[in-house]
Design goal:
It contains five helices and ten strands. With 197 residues, the protein is of the alpha+beta class. The strands form two sheets. Strands 2-1-10-5-6 form a five-stranded mixed beta sheet. Strands 3, 4, 7, 8 and 9 form a five-stranded antiparallel beta sheet that branches. It is globular, with a radius of gyration of 18 Å.
């Protein structure tokens, strides 16, 4: 009984956040339809949408035209420890290039309720809280990387990871390093309905 109730609560919570994935309980056709677009493959562009002032599609040339940053990272992956220096555009800068976050003057510090979902062509997703990247809070240099630098400081474009991948400095494991980005969405947690006093 407790396990069933716990699963229902988790499922409801995920669906409220918009992160629920179809399950076999949803019917075989819904499951197949969702994952039909998850074949993977190399990305050539991605769309940034949601709670930004202007939805925008980015290609490699678009990323190269924006202010660049470089981060050196070490993280654990399925292949063991990896060390790389990535070059790309800070995620915060991409949001600014889309006009910035949509304002909600009725909610104090609304951006602290917002999060960014990054999705790859295989439908693998990771979440970054906006407070992690907002310069006046954690200010983490999360990158949408399009190149990496080798020991001789030569830059090479990413190829096997699509034209862009997410890089999250400070993460000990590479689980949020989404490759082949196809979509980035800025969303908010739903209003709890509890009045603030």
């Amino acid at each position: 009984m407790h396990l069933t109730r716990g699963i229902a609560v988790v499922s409801l919570s995920l669906s409220m956040l918009g992160l629920a994935q179809p399950t076999l309980a949803d019917g075989d056709s819904g499951y197949r339809q969702h994952y039909a677009n998850c074949a993977g493959g190399t990305s050539q562009r991605f769309r940034l949408s949601g709670e930004v002032e202007q939805s925008k599609t980015f290609s490699l040339s678009d990323l190269e035209s924006l202010p660049v940053a470089k981060v050196a990272v070490t993280f654990e992956s399925g292949q063991g420890q990896e060390k790389h220096t990535y070059i790309g555009v800070p995620l915060w800068q991409l949001i600014q290039a889309s006009g910035g976050l949509k304002a909600n003057p009725t909610v104090k510090n609304n951006f602290l309720r917002q999060y960014v979902v990054i999705e790859g062509t295989d439908c693998y997703e990771a979440v970054i809280a906006v407070g992690e990247i907002e310069p006046n809070f954690e200010g983490k240099q999360v990158l949408v990387a399009y190149a990496q630098e080798d020991l001789s400081e030569a830059q090479t474009l990413l190829t096997d990871q699509g034209f862009a991948r997410l890089v999250v400095p400070g993460d000990q494991k590479g689980g949020r390093y989404v490759s082949n980005i196809k979509r980035i969405r800025v969303l908010s947690i739903p209003d709890s309905g509890v009045k603030q006093y």
